[in-house]
Structure formats: C-alpha cells, structure tokens
Amino acid sequence: MINHFSFRFNTVLKAKKTMEDNRKSEFGFAIQKQQSEETKLIHLLTKRNEIIKKKEVKAKKVFKIKEMKELNSQIKMIDDLIVQQRKVLREKEEAVNHTRKELIQASKAKKTFEILKEKDYEVFKYEQAKDEESLVDQLVSYKAATR
Length: 147
Prior knowledge:
The protein is about 90% helix and about 0% strand.
C-alpha cells in the first residue's frame, strides 16, 4: 500500500531545468564576449594615450611636420576605432541584458514548477497520512472485533 511520489509534470520540470541551464550558459558566454570587447576598448584607449604622449614629446623637440601629420592621422584612426568599439560594446551590453532577462524568465518558469511539485508532494504526504490513519483504525477495529 506504500505509494511512491510521482510528480505529474516531471518531464516539463526537467525541460525547464534544461532550458535554465542553457540560458545560464548563454548568459556566461555573453558576459565573456562583453568583457573581451571591453578589453579591446581599453587597449585602444591605451594606444591612443601612448600616441598622444609620443606627439607631446616630439612637439617639445625639433620635429618634422610630416611626423606630426602621421601622429595626428594615427590618433584620428584610433579615435574612429574607439567609436566603432564603443558601438560594439553597447551591442554586447544589450546582448547581456537580453540574455539576463531570458535567464530570469527561465528561472521563474522552473521555480513555478518546483513550487507546484512541492504542493503536490504536500498533498501526497497528507493522503499517505490519511491512508495510514485509516489502516490503523481498521487494525484497531479488527483487533477489537476478534476479542
């Protein structure tokens, strides 16, 4: 008479857990991409600062106009790259936010089914206790009747 608990939506719960795990992986991957793009931006900013310092050093000494034009064009090129990199970084940040929202939704869906499972388990335990109580009552009645 001992029954084992079987959750009626167990396959759905497993699917929700799998979906949440996939979203966690996607979220982690998106964060890695974002950090990679941030590193590229920092590298570009550092490179720009190095060229500016180099230009300032050359400006204090005797210099050729050609060298200054070359340094200015390098700064301009890096400025353009920085603008592009900031756009890419913004896109990666949006991707991270999007995957974060998807992860939150997947977690909520999983949690909903876990709560449902807990409630079903509580009902199962109550019914089991009721059945045990009924069985004990039957045993007591049988013993009392056989005496």
